[in-house]
Amino acid sequence: MKFVLIFGAIFWPRSSWQQCDDNGEMHSNGDKWIRNNHFLVTCRGGKIQTLKCVTDSGHLIDVGSKTHTENGYEYSCNQEEQQKEINVNSCSTFADFSDDIFKDRFAICCISRRFKGCVDINGDIIKHGYFLIGNQSLKFCKIAKNQLSARIEPKGCFNGSIHDDINDEKLHIKKYVTWKNGEFEWRCGDDGIHVQKCFVDGKVYWAGSSWIENNGNVKTCSTIY
Ligand SMILES: *[C@@H]1O[C@H](CO)[C@@H](O)[C@H](O)[C@H]1NC(C)=O
Ligand SMILES: *[C@@H]1O[C@H](CO)[C@@H](O)[C@H](O)[C@H]1NC(C)=O
């Protein structure tokens, strides 16, 4: 088979405010992020819109014409030649900046056919330095001088908000460090910060536990940051 269908979902939430709720993760107007590994999306006026589809081979492709709506999702699809391996020689001689190739969080420029940076949680390209990939997981992007090789180094977790400076080492946490904050014990694990334990009414619950309180309320100790 030569062609594969790529589906881009556009989700239209009912609420009319400006933020976008992507399965519980809030994004501000104008934010860009990669969704389900296959869609570069943005938040526009409270709606998540697909800007580009990311193919399995890492190419960004434009969203084509709308096809149909299903369960509140609007699907559009594009045709893209299937490619098993990424090869910069497949870049057109007339490539421009919209032809960047994405592979495993690396961004490759199709004009120079060299690495240009690493892709963070918002879909932004970081040329060199610290960046976040989700769950406050902290990474460092290194591009070799000749831009023919690149490396993403694990740096533990970032214990700050979007308003904090990502280079502030006081907010960097080494992997496997745990700390207590209020009714939670947090841990910097392999994929970011997670709740490890909950402290409720003098009892300790491990993440993943659920229990029924005297008043009938069902509680869970969640693992999500
Ligand atoms: C992470 O931040 C919280 C809140 O600012 C603080 O209480 C906690 O000590 C920090 N954890 C570490 C390991 O620095
Ligand atoms: C964030 O945490 C969830 C739950 O453990 C995990 O499935 C997901 O892969 C993590 N995301 C990243 C970017 O590590």
Automatic annotation (TrEMBL):
Q: Which residues form the Abnormal cell migration protein 18-like fibronectin type I domain?
A: 19-82
Q: Which residues form the signal peptide?
A: 1-17
Top-rank taxon of the source lineage equals: Eukaryota
Task: Give the residue spans that cross the bilayer.
Answer: none
The record's listing under InterPro entries reads: Mig-18-like, Mig18_Fn1
What UniProt keywords apply to this chain's record, in alphabetical order? Signal
Q: What is this protein called?
A: Abnormal cell migration protein 18-like fibronectin type I domain-containing protein
The species this protein was found in:
Caenorhabditis angaria
